[in-house]
Amino acid sequence: MSLERHIEASHHEVLDPDTLMEEPVWGALSELPGHPMMWVLLLSEFAVFGILFLIFSAARIREPLVFLAGQAQLDVTLAGINTVILITSGWCAALAVSVRETGNRRMARWLLAGAMALGCVFIALKVLEYAAKAALGIGLGNADTFFTLYFLITGFHLMHVILGIVILGIVAWHDTSDNLRTGTAFWHVVDLLWIVMYPIIYLVR
Predict the structure, then answer these.
(1) Which of the listed CATH numbers 2.30.40.10, 1.10.3720.10, 3.40.50.300, 1.20.120.80 matches domain 33-203?
(2) pLDDT (0 to 100) of residue 183
(3) Which pLDDT value is given to residue 39?
(4) Can you tell me the distance from the alpha carbon of 6 to that of 14, in angstroms, rounded to the nearest whole number?
(5) What is the structure's pLDDT at 43?
(6) Whether the Cβ atoms of residue 112 and residue 171 lie closer than 8 Å to each other
């Protein structure tokens, strides 16, 4: 090979965009819907909530009467309605992804708007639940073990609901299929966490 061709080949090798912009290796995360970085975040959230659920269960074993008395003051029906609301919201979000992949951006955005609206209803009902506890004189300042953990876990989840609504709003505006899959993945995890949380806090005696 001549010197000129060698220099040219070296030049192309250095400027090869595949070499410069090498994709990170995500392993099994690459098979999940949406961006793998979102799943890194979600796995960390699973770990945090898992620890909280374990703490709650351990505290229940240590103070069963306190937990029974606390659960008796919870509104199981209202929490059940909120469960149906979040499941329906998740269904709307999943349908939005399916519709978007057919090219119907308008309908996908309406479905995401519906998912966000249901999320807002969930927040409103949760605030009503907290207000009912405040009316009974129950707050973080004077809570026993049960209600301390109740406010901590449900409040932390409520923050995720608010964040999830913001994320759905962002992906509704920047509505590529990949963005929708990423945003709705977060929302489905928020749904799943509540589905696990509902029986642990409200139903299991």
Answers:
(1) 1.20.120.80
(2) 87
(3) 64
(4) 12
(5) 80
(6) yes
